[in-house]
Amino acid sequence: MNDNDNVCHAKSSPREALTWSTIAFFGGFAGVSAFGPIVPILKQTLSLSPLLMGLLAASPALTGSLLRIPFGAMVDRTGGKKPILVLLTMAILGVAGITLMFGLFPEPQPAHYPFFLLFGILSGCGIATFSVGIPSVSYWYPQRAQGSALAIYAGLGNLAPGLFALLLPSLVVWLGFTISYVVWLGILVLLVVLVYVYMQDAPYFQYREMGLDIDPDALLLACGEELLPSGKAMDSIRRAGSDWRTWVLTYFYFITFGGFIALTVWFPTYWSELYAVGLVQAGLLTALYSLSASLLRVLGGYAADRIGGEKVTLLSFAIVAAGALFMILSGRSIGGAVVGVLLLALGMGFANAAVFKLVPKYSPAAVGGAAGIVGGLGAFGGFVLPPVMGMFIKFNGPAGYAQGFSVFLVLSLLAIGFIVVLTRQATVKETTKPSLINK
């Protein structure tokens, strides 16, 4: 490739790459939804202690969080297609294991617990596709359009838990437990086949595979690829980890996306225990939060492209703090709690988009490593926050359900301080142009 070559020889297009990355993340995230409905069943049939049940329920979130770091960094070395296929295949093994166990043992025994724990770990692998898709999409789009593209990717992918929380129970009632899971397993297998056939890595990786010389300016002119990977996966992680701004963004994402996962798990119990609503109504109220936060993430990306990721992040945490305050003061007013839930969904949805608008801005030469750290450790909040909120209930009884949201109030106020520091630093130092990979 040379400076006079204005023709892009790469297959696919940014829109197609965004479409397949989003579908892959949606399918991977929905894979863990297949594990959720079996936990209450196993609690009864296996007579699980609270500790063992908690470990079982948290196993998909734990795996899906930690695997984001190495698999996100792998993108800088291999492109995104291979890591996505590996993660989706592991998720398929998890869903297949669940289906097989219930097919062979309609009434599981305590000795089967390790197998279900393993399949929970495997089912959660699909969540880690998120940190693979972030750099994959970022390498296809110029920085000015990354906020919108990444918001579409993450927002639509995040719809999976809410949609499947509504659809899967109805499917089980209609078709039966085993057949429902066989159907979902078939959909996942079909998804992997389609990704294998149609998904393409960013132009840089395609040019490298073809053995063509890569000139950054010519690649930008011909294919529109503005960011180039830094090289080896560990180099990407080290480079991103050495920048303090990566850890600030991780803290933001710990509150917003970790909080998103935590509250999606927490709200069914919250509504049932504090307001004594039925399971169906509790599910609908939970879906109101989950679906709203996911859809608002798309709008947050457009806002971040237009007014800047720092401004949107600052405003978002102010809204999260207001929502948490509503939840704390709502008492037993379900109307006040619903307002608080919608504010939390708005603030977290916008912040999730804005944070990943800032990732390629602050780590242009290590997007994969930064996405892995921010996405992986940030999502770990989904594993950490529910037990912390549960401590309020342990010490204060039912009133602790409302008081537990003070965790989000305190974390958000601290985040506002951090974003002020980050904004001041951003006005002083502009990001440098990414370096070409060292072969």
In brief, what are we looking at here?
The chain has helices at residues 14-33, 38-45, 50-66, 68-78, 81-104, 113-123, 129-140, 143-157, 159-175, 177-198, 203-210, 216-223, 233-241, 244-275, 279-307, 309-329, 334-362, 367-379, 381-396, 400-403, 406-428. It contains 21 helices and no strands.
What are the defining features of this structure?
439 residues; mainly alpha; Growth Hormone, Chain: A; 79% helix; globular; disordered C terminus
Word description of this protein:
This protein has helices spanning 14-33, 38-45, 50-66, 68-78, 81-104, 113-123, 129-140, 143-157, 159-175, 177-198, 203-210, 216-223, 233-241, 244-275, 279-307, 309-329, 334-362, 367-379, 381-396, 400-403, 406-428. The protein has 439 residues and is an all-alpha fold. The chain starts with 13 loop residues before the first helix and ends in an 11-residue tail after the last helix. Helix 3 (50-66) packs antiparallel against helix 18. It is globular, with a radius of gyration of 22 Å. The chain has 2 domains: 1-230, Up-down Bundle (Growth Hormone, Chain: A); 244-362 and 380-428, Up-down Bundle (Growth Hormone, Chain: A), CATH 1.20.1250. The model is unreliable at 430-439 (pLDDT under 50). The chain contains 21 helices and no strands. Helices cover 79% and strands 0% of the residues.
